Amino acid sequence: MSGNLLSIGKSGLFAAQAGLATTGHNITNASVAGYNRQVVVQATGPMLDTGVGFQGTGTQISQIKRYSDEFLNSQVRSAQSSKSGLDSYYSQISQIDNMLADQTSGLSPALQGFFEGLQDMARNRASLPSRQSMLSASDTLATRFQALDTRLDEIRDGVNGTIESSVTLINSYAQQIADLNDQIGTFAAAQQRAPNDLLDKRDQLVMELNTQVKANVTPGDNNSLTISIGNGQPLVVGQRTFQLAAIASPTDKGRIEVGYVAGNKVSVLGDNALSGGTLGGALEFRSKTLDPAQSALGKVAIGLAIEFNAQHKLGLDQNGQPGKDVFNVAEAFVGKNINNAQSSTAAVKAIVRDPAKLVDSDYKVKYNGSGYDVIRLSDNKPVVLTGTPPSADGIEFNITGSGAAGDEFLVRPTVGGAANFKLLLNPGDTESIAAAAPIATSFPNTNTGTGKISEGKVDAGFLTSGVSLPVTLSFQSNATTGTLSGFPAGMAVRVTNAAGAFIDYPAPATNVAFTAGSTYSFGGMSVTMTGAPGNNDSFKIASNKDGIGDTRNVGLLGELQTKNIFNKNTATIQSSYAQLVSTVGNKTREVQANGEAAEALLTQAKASASDVSGVNLDEEATNLIKYQQAYQAAGKVMQIAGTIFDTLLSIGR
Fold first, then answer.
1. Greater model confidence, 652 or 200
2. Are 86 and 179 found together in one domain?
3. Looking at the chain, which terminus has fewer C-beta neighbours within 10 angstroms, N or C?
4. Do residues 397 and 374 touch, judged by C-beta distance below 8 A?
């Protein structure tokens, strides 16, 4: 009897001791990240049949239970992945937002100063100081474009660094999780129980993995976890790990991509293949904000350079010579895939020719075995090259050499536009500014009527028409209104009235009807005739080589500020840049708001999980008292058992 009682007291003592140890373990690890509360679960010992009934033999510890809810943990991991991704995105995009919108170092002040320089030059009849000021403003604008692009490249380098460090961390976490899978499986197989502290450590590693990339977790064999990322690519399967690699893009050595290692082969994962976490946020930022922003800035630079150069060439400089290119127009970035056939000699060049037709997209040029396919990557649709040289979407493609089936090239039309926006004129070469218009009109005092001719305008056709100046137009009256003659023999004439209606006269245009207020266009020149000319009155269009002080072409250069040159001639230079600033600003606010919401969601998810698995120190203090009393009571049972045993021994003496 006393022996059985002693055994019962001993079992209670051991159970209370285990409870005290577990409670102490909870208290000391309450602030350890990822720790889950543990509780001793007791069960009654085996029963003894006494003949008159079954008698208990005490208690035993059935398990040390770990409180953890996988459903709640999954919510925490998902919320953590989302928040980390948005934090990563916001930390990068806020830099671009602040840079573009800055009223001092942004592009807007430089653009404004540039066009003010043109207006000042027009007001001051192209004086030397105004010419110098205009060149200085042009140089400042070029410097500002380059500075903004340099800053974007620095941000791009930062993204590359983030990708490399994230890949390293992901591989490290994967290896540690696989090692823990092995250890946990070994313990579980040997003792039929999972080691709680190792489970906590593994869950915490999975949580930290989700700060880098969104990971999907599924239970595996023998208490292991199987982890996959992206579109289902396995990262950890039991004790085996699969590695990621940070590698240079096959078409752009300066761009770090994420590769998935399978055996001896590394497959590049697209920027949209991985989501969540620091890595997913960085990849999404690069593809959805950084790349479009740099290309949009380059588009503004290229469009400005093309339009300004085209108008400048229609003027005359102080030496009476046609204007030259003022700004460099950057060629498109073309990346040759490193996996192209070694025997291939194919080469691709591309340059923007018409800013109005530009589509905000990059392109893939691929040889199909018999010809080249050009794919617009924004919608993944093929485009048809037309004309000579072949063009599409305002971009001229020059493809040379002999290709092999599968050869690929990446074409980014405007990404280098800002970096290569340079002033081609010498900053001190004020004489080269083509401020004057190339033609001047006049009529003699001997004219008998009231007819007048406008100062005249020219377009791009003037440079290639081969028109020989001077041209003298003569008016002959007739029974109706009269006709004009004297137009160059080999040129057609278009007459456009004030309402916009026009009549074309094919060459040779000998008797062109005169209508007051109509515009006469030929050889790239346009003049407007008004009034009522007298019979045989003449009007002269001559070269303006001696037009010192003429600023008509500067005025037209200044009008480029309000000219629609982008998006099918619906957006100006300023509005196109403003759209870029607005797009980045709106996305920044969106990411910031989503980040705040994700943080609130993460806090709620953690609170819910903590309600189940977190350590409550007040509760643990109560448990200490409970187990202390149980320990003391069990000791008292053993003490009584000893007393009984001593009594039995004394009877036998």
1. 200
2. yes
3. C
4. yes
Pairing mode of beta strands 452-453, 363-367:
unpaired
Number of domains in the chain: 4
Residue 313 lies in a domain: no
- Angle made by CA atoms 553, 557, 558, in degrees to the nearest 5: 120
CA–CA separation, 90 and 82 (whole Å): 12
Q: Which helix (H) or strand (E) holds 554?
A: helix 552-558
**135 with 176, same domain?**
yes
Q: What is the mean pLDDT of residues 403-432?
A: 94
Burial bucket for residue 296 (CB in 10 Å: 0-12, 13-18, 19+): buried
- The string of pLDDT tens digits covering residues 151-208 is 999 999 999 999 999 999 999 999 999 999 999 998 877 666 789 999 999 999 999 9
> How far is C-alpha 470 from the chain's CA centre?
55
Is the domain of 105 the same as that of 202? Answer: yes
Q: How far is Cα of residue 588 from the mean position of the Cα atoms in its chain?
A: 12
Q: What is the pTM of this model?
A: 0.91
- CB contact set of 361 (below 8 Å; sequence gap of 6+): 376, 377, 378, 379, 393
Residue 308 inside a domain? The answer is: no
- Let me know how long the chain is: 653
Contacts of 70 (CB under 8 A, 6+ apart): none
Query: What is the extent of the structural domain holding 475?
Result: 439-543
- 364 with 477, same domain? no
- Which of 481, 496, 494 is CA-nearest to residue 531? 481
Query: Based on the domain organization, do 217 and 190 belong to the same domain?
Result: yes
